[in-house]
Design a protein that fits this description.
Length: about 425
């Protein structure tokens, strides 16, 4: 079969061609690594033969929770209890939105994001919240509705069978002048995208209102879209800028630098609205480039610090790496301590007398998700014990309000 061409059509948007000098014609011999959503056509001369159509990922997605979905939920799930416990003190109604909710329960029995959010709210702020869960897929909508009814939560939850892009502007208009506390989770399925102009009305809510948003950005899809001129306007609409062309290679090649640059560009757009932004890459397997980024945004420093620790833990557990809570004597941790001590020195050199909590915020702002708060507090204590820093505190204790000073600002750290 000389000159055989293999064509893969991804939905209505993408078509990729490969040429082989010889290719099997048996459906069972089609490589298993082909994209899950693809029409596979083998063409030779003028006789195209449709070989196989692999099952849609959307139909099979909820059969079991995949590792990257576990990592997403390992961020949202642990965040909700401390978040809800804190914001309920504001006294304002709490609105929880999952715009791409899914079925709520996987075939293996594990919970998805809407039920993680719902169960945390029922446990920590019972009767103080309203939730909106959106699904365009009727089957997913019905399954989630049943799960909500099983939890006797119909009074607090509205399940919408609709497109999120239609419902979100409606919610934004309703909440534009209401002081409600808003938490919104946007994890679009597959190549779905969230245009920035749909997100923008929520970003424009007054700063006196509490607004927190978590978005999952599918960077792999954005890079694929860059290969087709017809999608460039959509890319600009999603990212709110044309500058994405500096990072998106039209030949689909992705480097770590390009991926981080693109996500940083998106984060900068969010910061224009006064939000503190944290990002966490999600890889399908350790060692691969990130396919997704979880991006959190809040105007409150406490939220950024909390999300830093949660994302640090989720990311390192996914990679199988040691965390500060797991291992204190490893060579890698000792190396990290040395880097961390130097970082603390630099912060105190620039801001003598800074409170410990503000020094930690400065560190997180510079290096989000690189360090855990446990390691930071240990570094400050280590430097104090080594007489490299001193502190002033009303209680005489080294706590978050303690002011920190270097004993010798010109000296490099030797504590590690």
């Amino acid at each position: 079969m000389q000159g055989t061409r293999l064509t893969m059509r991804h939905g209505h948007s993408f078509q990729t061609e490969f040429r082989f000098s010889d290719i099997p014609t048996s459906p069972s011999a089609i490589p298993s690594a082909l994209p899950e959503v693809a029409d596979v056509v083998i063409e030779q001369s003028a006789l195209p033969i449709t070989v196989a159509r692999r099952p849609s990922t959307e139909k099979t997605f909820f059969e079991r929770k995949r590792p990257w979905s576990k990592m997403k939920d390992a961020i949202v799930g642990p965040y909700m209890p401390p978040y809800l416990t804190k914001v309920v003190r504001r006294g304002a109604p709490i609105e929880l939105v999952d715009a791409f909710a899914g079925r709520g329960i996987y075939g293996d029995g594990s919970l998805g994001s809407p039920l993680l959010i719902l169960e945390a709210a029922m446990r920590h702020v019972p009767g103080r919240f309203q939730a909106t869960f959106i699904n365009r897929n009727l089957g997913h909508h019905a399954a989630l509705q049943r799960a909500v009814e099983q939890r006797q939560a119909e009074r607090f939850v509205t399940c919408r069978n609709a497109n999120a892009e239609d419902v979100l502007p409606e919610l934004a208009r309703a909440m534009s002048s209401r002081p409600d506390t808003l938490f919104m989770y946007l994890d679009p399925f597959g190549p779905s995208k969230v245009p920035f102009d749909v997100l923008e009305p929520f970003l424009q809510r007054p700063a006196r209102f509490s607004t927190e948003i978590v978005v999952v950005l599918n960077v792999a899809t954005l890079f694929r879209m860059a290969g087709s001129q017809q999608h460039h306007a959509t890319l600009s609409r999603v990212l709110n800028t044309d500058e994405w062309q500096r990072f998106l290679d039209p030949r689909y090649y992705r480097s770590e630098e390009d991926v981080n640059g693109l996500v940083g560009l998106y984060a900068d757009q969010l910061r224009k609205y006064g939000f503190l932004v944290g990002t966490c890459p999600i890889r399908k397997r350790p060692g691969l480039l990130a396919n997704f980024f979880v991006i959190s945004m809040s105007r409150h420093a406490d939220a950024l610090l909390l999300m830093n620790d949660i994302m640090y833990t989720a990311y390192n557990q996914f990679l199988g790496a040691a965390t500060p809570l797991d291992l204190f004597a490893s060579a890698e941790l000792l190396a990290q301590q040395s880097r961390f001590d130097a970082e603390v020195h630099e912060i105190l050199r620039q801001s003598p007398g800074i409170r410990r909590v503000d020094a930690w915020l400065a560190c997180v702002t510079r290096h989000f998700r690189r360090y855990h708060s446990t390691a930071f507090r240990a570094a400050v204590r280590r430097l104090a014990d080594a007489h490299e820093l001193r502190f002033v505190s009303a209680t005489g204790r080294l706590n978050d309000d303690a002011q920190l000073f270097l004993v010798n600002p010109g000296m490099q750290s030797v504590a590690s």
